Amino acid sequence: MSKHDPDLSLLFHALADPTRRAMLSRLAERPCPVTELAAPTGLSLPTVMRHLGVLEDAGLITSAKDGRVRTCALVPEALTPARTWLDEQRALWSARLDRFEALVNQTMKEQEE
């Protein structure tokens, strides 16, 4: 599996946790050091590192170490496979609902006659 084409299961698993989503929201503003990402969570640093590892495994973030400071950055294009899958599902369900609506309308029209 390539980091540029993440498996949807890893991607959705990473997005399933509210702590990780909050971290992604902060990283959407700008790259942040791990300690800055950890501060609002109230979690221990090893726990935060595990969350960041899940995000990195899914290809959603990158991290770089400069001296003693590890900085994380968002990889926005990593969300493309999830967006594509969701768009496909939306189109599928919209078509199904359109057919269902047509069936209901036809049934109601037949009952009125």
Automatic annotation (TrEMBL):
Name of the protein this chain belongs to: ArsR/SmtB family transcription factor
SMART domains named in the record: HTH_ARSR
UniProt-listed PANTHER family: SLL0088 PROTEIN (PTHR38600:SF2), TRANSCRIPTIONAL REGULATORY PROTEIN (PTHR38600)
Domain named HTH arsR-type: residues: 1-113
Short name of any one Pfam family annotated for the protein: HTH_20
Highest taxon of source: Bacteria
Database matches in Gene3D superfamilies: Winged helix-like DNA-binding domain superfamily/Winged helix DNA-binding domain (1.10.10.10)
